[in-house]
Design brief:
It contains 15 helices and 13 strands. With about 450 residues, the protein is of the alpha/beta class.
Length: about 450
């Protein structure tokens, strides 16, 4: 038995149960071939007619086992990430995204990513679709037990059809939400190759044959802003217009957005029309009260880092220097935004002399939000009731497939119930129009 410890965290600017199971695949091998208040849940949604087909700006992919063994240069594959099936003796959640792990050949089998000293065990709650709600646990899982849409692009599009979803933007799993796994690696040359291999796979395999249904979202080498800028440009030349970034980089031991260190990366994003996408958990820590608090505490507070991050950006001067830069907050929900923006404007108006932003931020912070920032949600009745305060042009929608928060395969019903009473034009903006504008998609 061996013990280990794991950390698992899970362009255009805005205008002012098991269901349908498919065949199991071995180890992830792909298949061939608002201005009015919202009503309460349960009321019929006939005010806007047919719900437009959804564009989900926050879903997830469980990387197939072959990814780095196929897309890394041959000389690096032995050292690159690879999947091993191992017996699990123990996997104890010890707070936040931390686990105490023990392996035993005679224990239940699980598929694990192995990379340098890291052993990442696949867990059911990140490949939860198809399981009953009470079975969406942190238990170890193999690819054979996952719904193929988690890792197979053909099966994913089929699951999108079941869920009234036209297009989907997917965040990574093993690399973590902005590539922290590779930023923490010892061998930065190998890590850079792994980032590039992921992006090649994302563009040329995951998205390539989907007819635009799967939208590419790429990683950067977080440890070097010049390399990050080069990677943004490399991927933009192939049609990628979205990149993962951390909500709060200093939590990863990286420079803050106030430091000026990220200017090459940000300039590349502006030059290429690439949206900076920040997912909850992309700071490798979730807001929690104590190490022994149940995971439900962090899940309830999951929007807190997004709120802190938004304040950071609004008072950084970055949005002043880069007026065409676009930010997208993923899975942060939107109900908290009205007061956060109100407070930021109050601080700017009342405290800017001593607050250090008198000459840095010439306009009320909320004006930069409405010009350059998008939020998204999957269930947020309070946010929908506050669209006037948020800005209907700044809101997008998500399904969070295949995580436990996912509304699959019932997203259409959930959306219709939440948005009952909203005008048709508002609903169109929320479920697809704003995403089309944000990502520059060739859709109506």
């Amino acid at each position: 038995m061996t013990d280990s410890h794991q950390t698992d965290s899970h362009h255009m600017a805005p205008a002012a149960h098991r269901t349908g199971e498919g065949p199991a695949r071995s180890l992830g091998e792909p298949a061939r071939s608002l201005r009015e208040p919202a009503r309460s849940l349960g009321e019929p949604a006939h005010s806007f007619g047919e719900l437009p087909r959804i564009i989900s700006v926050d879903d997830h992919v469980v990387e197939p086992a072959h990814l780095w063994q196929r897309w890394l240069p041959a000389r690096l594959r032995d050292a690159g990430p690879r999947v091993q099936r191992r017996g699990i003796g123990r996997m104890e959640h010890i707070g936040g995204g931390n686990y105490r792990q023990a392996f035993d050949d005679d224990g239940p089998q699980a598929d694990c990513w192995v990379y340098e000293d890291l052993v990442y065990i696949h867990k059911r709650h990140v490949a939860a679709v198809g399981f009953d709600r009470d079975d969406m646990t942190m238990s170890p899982i193999t690819y054979d037990e996952m719904r193929p849409g988690c890792y197979d692009p053909v099966a994913r599009v089929a699951d999108m059809e079941l869920n009234h979803v036209e297009a989907s933007l997917c965040f990574p799993t093993f690399p973590r939400f902005c590539g922290q796994t590779f930023a923490e690696a010892r061998d930065t040359d190998l890590a850079l190759a792994c980032v590039r291999a992921y992006n090649d796979w994302m563009i040329d395999e995951w998205c390539a044959d989907s007819g635009g249904r799967l939208i590419p979202l790429c990683l950067i080498p977080l440890w070097d802003a010049e390399l990050a800028a080069a990677e943004v440009r490399r991927n933009a030349a192939r049609g990628c217009r979205a990149v993962c970034f951390s909500e709060i980089p200093p939590h990863l031991g990286l420079p803050s957005i106030h430091s000026g260190s990220w200017e090459p990366f940000l300039a590349a994003c502006v030059d290429t029309g690439t949206v900076v996408c920040m997912h909850i958990g992309s700071s490798s820590r979730m807001p929690a009260t104590s190490a022994d608090a149940p995971p439900a505490v962090a899940a309830t507070l999951s929007f807190n880092n997004a709120m802190a991050s938004l304040a950071d950006w609004l008072f950084s001067g970055v949005l002043v220097r880069f007026p065409e830069l676009v930010l997208a907050y993923s899975e942060g929900q939107i109900g908290w935004l009205p007061y956060a923006l109100e407070r930021a404007d109050d601080v700017w108006r009342e405290h800017r002399a001593w607050g250090g932003v008198r000459h840095l931020v010439p306009e009320p912070p909320s004006s930069y939000f409405r010009r350059q920032v998008y939020g998204c949600f999957f269930r947020d009745r309070h946010g929908l009731a506050s669209l006037d305060a948020i800005g209907v042009d700044n809101v997008t929608f998500e399904t969070d497939y295949p995580h436990t928060d996912s509304t699959w395969p019932d997203t259409r019903r959930v959306a219709e119930e939440m948005m009952a009473g909203l005008p048709a034009a508002t609903v169109h903006k929320i479920v697809r129009g704003n995403a089309i504008r944000m990502l520059g998609l060739d859709l109506a």
